[in-house]
Write a structure and sequence with these properties.
The protein has a four-stranded antiparallel β-sheet, covered by helices on one side. By secondary structure, it is of the alpha+beta class. The chain is built from four helices and four strands, in the order H-E-H-E-E-H-H-E.
């Protein structure tokens, strides 16, 4: 019986310590940013920017209007070597939970981009213009 009491006491103390630590955080969780690193294939910059200014922008604006994202941006820069990206696509979400709104995002995408088959074809079409080198997600920590 004493052993059970000790374990229960330790669990309660650990829970209390965790709660106290949460109140002592020097920050709050901010928005989540996804960055995709894009290498544009030779001779395809104008074509890719036309895609970004057309269907990509329409999709991002629809996601913003639906409250799925808070903002998006396109950054172009001079790569230091041939293996680096020349463009970064950035999307900002209000929080991690926003990424769970898959059904809503699929509905918005279907309205803007068409059927799944049309979206797959559009992805293949972009493949001749660019190479996705990778992506990363990060969360802003807002200091108190």
């Amino acid at each position: 019986m004493r052993t059970i009491f000790r374990y229960a006491l330790c669990a309660v103390l650990a829970l209390m310590a965790g709660t106290a630590m949460a109140h002592d955080k020097q920050y709050k969780e901010g928005p989540v940013v996804e960055q995709s690193f894009i290498k544009i294939k030779p001779g395809k910059f104008s074509d890719y920017v036309a895609y970004l200014a057309g269907p990509y922008k329409a999709l991002m604006e629809a996601r913003k209007k639906a409250g799925l994202i808070t903002s998006y941006a396109v950054y172009s820069f001079a790569a230091r070597n041939p293996s680096e990206p020349g463009m970064i696509l950035s999307t900002t979400y209000p929080n991690w939970a926003a990424l769970d709104r898959v059904a809503e995002d699929e509905a918005v995408s279907a309205k803007v981009m068409g059927t799944m088959k049309q979206m797959e074809q559009a992805g293949a079409d972009r493949g001749v213009m660019r190479e996705v080198l990778g992506s990363q997600m990060m969360q802003e920590l807002i200091l108190k």
